[in-house]
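Provenance

Sequences were taken from public entries as deposited. Structures were produced by running a predictor on each sequence independently, with no templates supplied. The record for ISAzo13 family transposase from Nostoc punctiforme FACHB-252 is shown for reference.
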Amino acid sequence: MVLTDSLKKLLIETAYQLKGAAKRKFMAQAVQGLGLGGQRLAQSELGWNRDTIRKGIRELESGITCFDNMSAKGRYKAEEHLPNLLEDIKNIVDSQSQIDPSFKSQRLYTRLSAAEVRKQLIEKCGYSDENLHTSETIRVKLNNLGYKLRRVKKVQPQKKFPQTDAIFEQLDIVNMDASEDKSVLRLSMDGKARVKIGSFDRGGKSRDGTKADDHDYNPKTTVTPYGIFLPEEDELFLYFTESKVTSDFIVDILEDFWLEQKHRFSDIQTLLLNQDNGPQNSSRRTQFMKRIVEFAQKHQVNIRLAYYPPYHSKYNPIERTWAILENHWNGSILDEVETALKFASTMKWKGSHPVVKLVNKTYENGVKLTKKAMAQIEKQIERLTDSTHEVFPNLGNWFIDICCRKTKFI
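Predicted structure for ISAzo13 family transposase:
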């Protein structure tokens, strides 16, 4: 049988208008009418798939019709219909973000939603409203490309002091030396934000239908967690106080820790304290320096203070433990101090529970020494200065050595 142009056109258009089993039956009947070699001819001249033709012939000969489960196959991906869709979405999102009012960059003030991205695809990339997929599909594509909705991360420090890089370099040296020296025990210390005690929502989720007050006014009390973390041993010690966190409080919990744990560290001659240079434990805080010198002399252990630069305390290892604590007790009601302590004691860090204590002492804020008294303290400490270190000058506020025998040991 000869396939004329008009016949080929008729067969192609008829098959195109049919679907599923009806289409296969028509193709099978047409191929049978072509005679020997009909399948090959239909493939080459009409563009029909030979597997589809064979399936139609089997259905025709057996009298059994196969119904395709098309719904189980799912739909074609949007990018198969629109090959440039993903690249166009990336170009739109990458070029638009919030900037400062000084217009120092090319970015725009835009909060991009899926609907906004779809609108810009139509306006800027030439897509038509009829052919472009819905906003829900655009949202899925945004998520798949990594542009998921997430909170703004606090990763940029507010300020960078001129000595910041030098402080970090010196910190690396001090901390590395401590990890290699068996006579030095490194402690990471810092406090967490105050926690309101009451029937308040902490933003977490619960399976037991816990209900909280709709406002967090007038808490019963507040507690501040303060931690001592041992990076080399991955051990955590948490102290809670309803009082203010003062210089005396910080040294008191350090002393409590050392009295309880020093039997484990009989070879330790020096305690390296990693802290932020906050107002209560700064190396210029007279009461803190007085107490830490007294601690060294009383317990006959050298103290090395190594502070993180201002606005960079998040790099202190203790900071990593606070997120675990938050995730552990969020979704629960901390309506009593005892409840907060119980939750803290059941959290796990690296598979182990922390040691948790409540400090009941009330501390007075604002205690300080006279200039004359502080001058005597300065004689008992050694600051890292121009005269003691040539590579990192002017770091005396961040690196201090205190010898228990009142002799220099830098």
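The radius of gyration is 36 Å.
The chain has three domains: 5-71, 75-144, 164-402.
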